[in-house]
Amino acid sequence: MVILEAKEIEVSYYGDISILQGVNLSAEVSKITAIIGPNGAGKSTLLKTLCGFLKPKKGKVFLRGREITGVQPHTLMSMGLSYIPQYNSLFPDLTVKENLELGAWTFRKDHKRIRDGIEKVFQRYPFLKEKASTKTTKLSGGQQRILELGRTLMGSPEVLLLDEITAMIAPIVAKEIYQDIENLSKEKITVVMVDQNVRQVIEISDYIFILELGKNKVSGTKEEFSGRLKDVIQDWLVYENV
Ligand SMILES: Nc1ncnc2c1ncn2[C@@H]1O[C@H](COP(=O)(O)OP(=O)(O)OP(=O)(O)O)[C@@H](O)[C@H]1O
Ligand SMILES: [Mg+2]
């Protein structure tokens, strides 16, 4: 069943130049959908449009069949759609626990839910419990990304949009994050992720969308991609060694 769908999305930052030019995407419930493409293809722009940070000038977004185009991010969060941006969004002066508490902002009066949520995050990522009182800037890059995941899970999302959650972090931590994402999908969370580690992300994904210059290039299941990945992306210099 499709839970999140974008149809013919057109987005401009200013003037007449459309960054996304009629992009389509659909994500099946509790599956992992990957969006890959070269730098500047519009991947982040697409995620920001899905989660309400950008309003498309044309096209529509649907969540569980209901149109959500232009709905504000905090409203979408309470509808079960959460987003982790490409660049660190933690509050650097706050501790690990305080950042987790801020993930519970939408239900901030429900203290029991906050306590239970934090306990669940600590069980999932035990190192966060040890570092509960540590300022986030003292964590490694990978640990900070895991904290962002934990903070987002505080809101009990059904659909999680992840923009390059594994970028610039140690490969061993990236591996843990990929495993965690697979587990999240087994726990019925739908994941839509942009990722530059093409090989690894395809490995864990059920469905793949390739964007180039603001348009869909190809899309298909992992099986459909195996064997022809090299053809599809050979002209992206950054992926020379794929
Ligand atoms: N706030 C902005 N204002 C104007 N143009 C922007 C803005 N953000 C992105 N762009 C432009 O939109 C295009 C798509 O950018 P976007 O960040 O969506 O690409 P991307 O596929 O996520 O790239 P990357 O792999 O580098 O993260 C680029 O040409 C970029 O310069
Ligand atoms: Mg991006």
Describe, in plain words, how this protein is organized in 3D.
- The protein is α/β, with parallel strands linked by helices.
- The chain folds into 2 domains: 2-80 and 157-239, Rossmann fold (3-Layer(aba) Sandwich); 89-156, no CATH class.
- 35% of the residues lie in helices and 24% in strands.
- It has 10 helices and 10 strands.
- It has helices at 43-50, 73-78, 96-102, 111-124, 126-130, 141-153, 171-186, 198-204, 222-225, 229-233; strands at 2-11, 20-28, 32-36, 58-63, 66-67, 81-84, 159-163, 190-194, 207-212, 215-221.
- A 6-stranded mixed beta sheet has the order 6-7-8-3-9-10, sandwiched between helices. Strands 2-1-4-5 form a 4-stranded antiparallel beta sheet, covered by helices on one side.
- A hairpin with an 8-residue loop joins strand 1 (2-11) and strand 2 (20-28).
- Helix 3 runs parallel beside helix 6 (141-153).
- The chain is globular.
- The site of adenosine-5'-triphosphate has 11 residues, from helix 1.
- Residues 13, 19, 37, 39-45, 86 line the site of adenosine-5'-triphosphate.
